[in-house]
Design goal:
A six-stranded mixed sheet has the order 1-2-3-4-5-6, sandwiched between helices. Helix content is 30%, strand content 27%. The protein is an alpha+beta fold and 142 residues long. It has one domain: Aminopeptidase, CATH 3.40.630. The protein starts with a strand and ends with a strand. The longest helix is centred in the middle third of the chain and has 15 residues.
């Protein structure tokens, strides 16, 4: 059985390894450096999580916000753990964190060629724009 817990900077080596080895995840140098991830985690303590089994990280999600909109980054699950609901549970935990912070709309960017990832987002209520794979989802009713 897996557990979901807040992501911490001590997870850095393991999460970077997961992201580097996950098709559809794009890393951007300084944006994904230890220093940048540390700053991100300090500002977004309620929306960044890992899933683990026996102290091994097999899934991640990072969520942050600008005070108006939530942004999702690096939802990844190791291939051998996919199709078990782990990604969905990570997403739900981050969405609940955004809702508690008063964030009513979430967006993300997915590579167009990431068919598996795009299917996941569509199945979880995220809409596709026509010009790119920009998605959003309202977390509260109007």
């Amino acid at each position: 059985m897996y557990k979901i817990r807040p992501m911490k900077i001590e997870d850095f080596k393991e999460i970077i390894h997961l992201w580097e080895n996950t098709e559809g995840i794009g890393l951007w140098g300084k944006d994904d450096s230890r220093k940048s991830i540390k700053m991100f985690l300090e500002k977004n303590q309620n929306t960044c999580f890992v899933a683990e089994i026996n102290d091994e990280i097999m899934g991640t999600i990072m969520g942050g916000n600008d005070g108006r909109r939530g942004h999702i980054y690096h939802l990844a699950v190791k291939p051998e753990y996919r199709k078990k609901g782990i990604g969905k549970k990570l997403l739900e935990k981050t969405e609940r964190g955004f809702k508690k912070e008063g964030i009513r709309k979430i967006f993300l960017v997915a590579f167009k060629e990431n068919k598996q990832g795009n299917k996941f987002w569509e199945n979880n209520g995220y809409k596709t724009r026509k010009d790119l794979h920009y998605r959003d989802k309202e977390t509260t009713e109007r």
